[in-house]
Amino acid sequence: MASTSELLSTAIELHQMGMYDQASKVCQQILQQQANHVQALHLLGLLRYRQNQFAEALRLLQQAVQIQQNAGIYLTLGNVLNAMGQPEKAIICFRTACKLDPGTIEAWINLGILLFDLGKYRESIEALNFAHQRRPEQPLIPFYLGNNYYNLKDYERALQYYQEVLRLDPQFPTAEFYLQLGNTYTTLEKPVEALKAYRKAAELKPDMASAYNNMGSTLVTLGKIEEALGCYHISLQIDPGHVETYFNLGNALRMQGKLEEAAANYRKAIQIKPNYYKAQYNLGKVLTDLGHLEEGLSHFLKTIEIQPDMLAARVNAAYVYQELLRVEDALECLEAGLTVDPNHIELRWNRALLLLLLGRYKEGWQDYELRWKRGKLKPRPFDQPTWDGRPLPDGRLLIYCEQGLGDCLQFIRYLPMVKERVGQVILECPRSLKRLLAGLPEIDTLVVAGDPLPPFDEQIALLSLPRVFQTTVDTIPNHVPYLSIPAEALENMRKHMSPGNDRLKVGIVWRGNPRHLRDSERSCSLEYFQTLLDIPEIQWFSLQKGQAEEELTRHFPDGEIINLSPHLNDFADTAAAIALLDLVISVDTSVAHLAGALAKPVWILLPFSPDWRWLLHRKDSPWYPTARLFRQPARRDWTSVFQEVKAELLKQVKPRSPSKD
Fold first, then answer.
1. What mean pLDDT comes out for the span 104-123?
2. How confident is the model at residue 57 (pLDDT cuts 50, 70, 90)?
3. Do residues 560 and 533 lie in contact, with contact meaning Cβ atoms separated by under 8 Å?
4. Which residues contact 45 (CB under 8 A, 6 or more apart)?
5. Is residue 159 packed enough to be buried (19+ CB in 10 Å), middle (13-18) or exposed (0-12)?
């Protein structure tokens, strides 16, 4: 009959051979002879663990540790408890094993892995570092060290450990490892290396949808969108429910301008995962771009419901509210966002524009200064202090133009007020305005933007002057004209605009700056003006410049509208042309401001949701006494605007018609 030690050796050998049932029988034979045989209890507990009989394994191992405090038994007991979903108890067992025998490296490794799984990354690093020092050749340890540092956002250190894994054992890494390596390279903005890692992951595991998804996103970063689309389609062939792929495919299609297709993919992502707030948000953006404002708004509101602190959704929801002229809703939306982050630049900036639109100038001007912090306008790097409005009787003040030409023309009105407080006024302006502004008596030195500046003591941006002077709707300096026209420009323009008839001379502008964010809302088609051409008492002139001028010859090849563009070299020429007209009809662009500044009757055609300076629900403008505002009654309804314009034109020309006897 075999001795206990011989039976134990046999059981161990059978276990090592993977013959768990036979090994178990031998252990049971030992325990029949010695019920408290620690090694047999431990081995049988280990075998039951291997056979997924966790409850029986737990009973045997607990019996063993009551007999003997052994590091190996606690290691196995920790593994069993972890398998049974009791990680906190497992951690206690692993720590006990490490304390009983610090040389039990597997206990340190398992402790580190379990702490990582529980999100206790720094404790995990501590355990794994201990193991790493004593077993530097084990690739599993730097792998988990890398994972810990990745989750702690220390990506450089994570990468160092992942590279160590590859050095230790090039065959160790799995597809999942290469996926994580690719993610690390992506975060470190190394797309070429990331792409190689994702391709390796896909090579090792061709049915890994996430590898193709991430590969696609990296190709997008590299500007290879068509190639990326192919990867996304493979990902979806592998896993038709891979929600991130639908989202990323939508993003790629959106970059290509395929907005309807992008929307369809965002919808699929949301169908799979309704609370996927990023897809909800991007769908809202696409629908807004497509002009489906109400539907886009619903997705922004859903985004806010899912993720209340996603403030970009509040910014966009407020934008749509404003486009729908639901300004109080827009303001409420922005205010709600500011309770989350009172210093959020875009929320405060958009609130400033809304307050200005509502005529609440005192509040609006303050945050209008945030335009310099949005990243779209670069603040000038001057060492001289910003002027705060205090008197500088012997000082030299630089005022520099900013933003659009219309802004310059609108706010140049403040120069007389500045001159009352400042000894010398230096104005920096765009070249196209130089000749027009050269005659202003308030300007001591006029400099073209880009040319060297003369010495100055303080400086201020032109559009900051309303704040300095605490302008309200009732205190706007609106004495017009505040611009004068160079005599030579006027004399030259008369050659091209002969006064040989008594028809009403009307100048038109139908398009603004095509680079303006809201150009599609502000500009209209020249075709709308065709409805006005049947009024014989009017002679039409085009003040349009730029590419839109080509529309004139396309729509009116017979010269029904006289094209002044060849004679308009700068704003002095345009001002001269306006002076020789009876009326200007313009969309919201710089010519409208110029006409208003010259005290010329100007009819300004406004979109449903206008720019802040035109306020709401009024036909006049406190900025320009000679302006009349024609507002869209509904979004993009230019037809109604032109019907109203035509009716008013007929009233204008009626007195000019000869009376009948």
1. 96
2. confident
3. yes
4. 56, 57, 58, 60, 61, 64, 73, 76, 77, 80
5. buried
Q: Give the mean pLDDT of 48-63.
A: 89
β-sheet with 458-461: strand ranges across: 445-448, 422-429, 392-400, 458-461
DSSP label at 620?
A: S
Q: Which phi and psi (to 5°) does residue 330 adopt?
A: -60, -45
For the chain, the distance separating the N- and C-terminal CA atoms, rounded to the nearest angstrom, is: 145
Pairing of strands 602-606, 538-542: unpaired
Question: Is the omega angle on the peptide bond into residue 536 within 30 degrees of 0, that is, cis?
Answer: no
State how beta strands 445-448 and 422-429 pair: parallel
Type of residue at 307: Q
For the stretch 475-478, contacts whose Cβ atoms lie closer than 8 Å and that sit 24 or more positions apart, written own/partner, are 476/622, 476/623, 477/413, 477/414, 477/416, 477/417, 478/413, 478/622, 478/623, 478/624, 478/625
389: left (phi over 0), alpha (psi -120 to 50) or beta: left
488 CB-contact burial (10 Å; exposed 0-12 / middle 13-18 / buried 19+) = exposed
Pick the CATH number of 392-475 from 3.40.1000, 1.10.533, 1.10.10, 3.40.50: 3.40.50
Measure CA 547 to chain center.
Answer: 30
Closest by Cα among 595, 623, 625, 601 to 610: 623
Whether 655 has a pLDDT exceeding 80, the answer reads: no
pTM of the full structure: 0.85
| 3-class SS of residue 320 | helix
Helix residue spans in 175-238 (DSSP H): 175-187, 191-204, 209-221, 225-238
DSSP secondary structure letter of residue 610: -
What are the structural domain ranges in the chain?
A: 308-373, 392-475, 487-656
pLDDT tens for 268-325 read: 999 999 999 999 999 999 999 999 999 999 999 999 999 999 999 999 999 999 999 9
Whether the domain at 308-373 and the domain at 487-656 fall into the same CATH topology: no
The whole-angstrom separation of Cα 308 and Cα 284 is 16
Q: Quick one: CA dihedral 80, 86, 89, 92, positive or negative?
A: positive
> CB neighbours of 441 closer than 8 A, spacing ≥ 6?
none
Q: What is the Cα–Cα distance from 261 to 578, expressed in whole angstroms? A: 47
Question: Under CATH, what is the fold of the domain 487-656?
Answer: Rossmann fold (3.40.50)
Confidence check: pLDDT of 29 > 90: no
Q: Which two tokens stand for residue 371?
A: 């335009």
CATH number of 308-373: 1.25.40.10
Instruction: Find all residues with CB under 8 Å of 450, minimum gap 6, and list them.
Output: none
